[in-house]
Design a protein that fits this description.
The chain is an alpha/beta fold. It folds into 2 domains: 323 residues, Zn peptidases (Aminopeptidase), CATH 3.40.630; 140 residues, Glucose Oxidase, domain 1, CATH 3.50.30.30. The protein is 32% helix and 22% strand. It is built from 12 helices and 17 strands. It has a 9-stranded mixed β-sheet, sandwiched between helices. The longest helix has 29 residues. The chain is globular, with a radius of gyration of 22 Å.
Length: 474
């Protein structure tokens, strides 16, 4: 899930501990007889999880033999594409490669950041990290805070307007917090104002959590080093206004990525239901919960559809480039004709459905088109009848369903939490650890096969199976 790593506070609020969530209590009718489709989904989920885990183990092996990553453009991603394509064809699906162009980013060596007086080295990954599509270069310059108010509890950053840099000394290092715009906008505005480098200090990042790697969406026009940093690093630099030496060795090159689209040849005519999730990981981890869990679950749902409803008008999608900007899903949707767009009845998205310190979330995006509430209701009624605690959440189009929202296609999905911290109330409702991330390995090397919570995975599989067949048979 790309999340706030894509943009500033306009998306950041979508999935933080204080994000809009609506707790749903079971209705008075929750004790009535459970429909047969729901009752049957529970034993089916039990058998499904074993097959899903086999897929997850295979994806983990792919990542581990390819430098610990399955990022789009890497050999690990290419192997993941081949794995999914092979399994879908074995199930009788026709598989098409849907291609898109993108810039493949590489960090050639750890980023070096050194404070000159008093001398201190900041550690790559713990204190700072080059953002995706950061420019390369060596810089020695003073730090200049821009809108970095140490006295305010409002951590919304400046830099979304070129006017914010009117007093920036040419050749300095602009120090910012994320603002209500794309990070790329802040970096480009600073660069055009004469900054030699940019450091964005994220309030969510601490020395304990380390620094994740936000994306600037494209390398085009980015010529200076652009780094993410912990909040503590930012505060320290803002107070000292010291001189830094930065060495960033990065590069990017144009590549063609691929998503997979799968349908059965014998599918009956009519509007189609789409089900998808992103196949790629971040460059810094294997992505087994994010989003191997969604992909493995979709593979299992494809098997179930082939066995039970082989002529169902359903299309499965395995997206590339989600982690660097929702690239594959956006390219696919934008390539559709108006007739093809209107033929998509709905889109279901599954991204991170086995988080270790989970909360069960049902999509309820405020910006979702008409008809999306019916999908939300399918999931919420299922959980209520199973007496399973859940919350609805507004993701703000944070994952691949965002591209479908833009085209007016009804959407829905499930999610079990990413970087956001679990509250005490949530610990009471769901167990786990309060004050800890719902997925402490989110976008990190430890997002491997040991990062899967089988209990919540089994529950999500039951809900997904119920909703999928309810939509296909109505």
């Amino acid at each position: 899930m790309v999340g706030w790593l894509l943009a500033g506070s306009m998306l950041a609020g979508a999935c933080t501990a204080s994000s809009p969530e609506v707790e749903r209590a079971a209705p008075s009718g929750a004790s009535e007889a459970t429909p047969a489709t729901e009752a049957s989904s529970q034993p089916a989920a039990q058998g499904s999880v074993g097959r899903i885990l086999e897929h997850l183990e295979a994806l983990d092996r792919i990542a581990q033999r390819n430098g610990g990553t399955r990022a789009v453009g890497s050999e690990g991603y290419d192997e993941s594409v081949a794995y999914v394509s092979r399994h879908m064809r074995q199930l009788g699906y026709s598989v098409v490669s849907d291609r898109f162009d993108f810039d493949y980013f590489e960090q050639l060596s750890p980023t070096r950041v050194e404070r000159l007086k008093p001398r201190k080295a900041y550690v790559d990954g713990r204190d700072v990290r080059a953002m995706v599509y950061s420019g390369a270069g060596r810089v020695s310059a003073p730090v200049e805070p821009v809108g970095f108010d140490l006295r305010s509890n409002d951590h919304t950053g400046a830099g979304c307007s070129s006017d914010d840099f009117s007093d920036l000394p040419t050749g300095s290092i602009a120090l910012l917090r994320p603002g209500p715009c794309y990070y790329r906008d802040q970096v480009v505005n600073a660069q055009e104002a004469g900054a030699a480098a940019v450091i964005l200090a994220f309030p969510e990042f601490t020395r304990a959590t380390g620094v994740l790697r936000p994306t600037l969406l494209s390398g085009a026009g980015i010529e200076i080093p652009a780094l993410a940093a912990t909040d503590g690093t930012g505060v320290e630099l803002a107070r000292s206004r010291t001189r830094l030496r930065i060495t960033a060795r990065t590069r990017y090159s144009p590549l063609r990525g691929v998503s997979l689209i799968a349908e059965r040849r014998e599918a009956r005519a009519g509007d189609v239901l789409m089900v998808g999730g992103h196949l790629d990981s971040v460059m810094d981890g294997p992505g087994i919960n994010d989003n191997g869990s969604g992909i493995a679950t979709i593979l299992e749902m494809a098997r179930a559809v082939a066995a039970k409803e082989p002529d169902a008008p359903v299309r499965f999608a395995f997206w590339g480039g989600e982690e660097i900007g929702l690239l594959g899903s956006t390219a696919y949707v934008e390539s559709l004709s108006s007739q093809q767009t209107t033929s998509i009845e709905a889109y279901l998205n599954f991204d991170m459905v086995a988080s270790p310190n989970f909360v069960r979330y049902v999509y309820e995006d405020e910006i979702a088109p008409a008809g999306s509430d019916e999908i939300t209701d399918l999931f919420t009624r299922y959980f209520n009848r199973q007496d399973i605690e859940f919350k609805t959440i507004d993701l703000g189009g944070r994952s691949d369903h965002g591209a479908f929202i833009e085209q007016g296609i009804p959407v829905g999905g499930l999610f079990t939490g990413a970087e956001m911290l679990k509250s005490r109330r949530q610990r009471k409702d769901y167990g786990g650890r309060a004050g800890a991330s719902m997925d402490g390995c989110y976008h990190r090397p430890c997002d491997d096969i040991d990062n899967i919570n089988q209990k919540v995975l089994r529950e999500m599989v039951g809900a997904i199976r119920h909703a999928l067949f309810a939509l296909l048979t109505r």
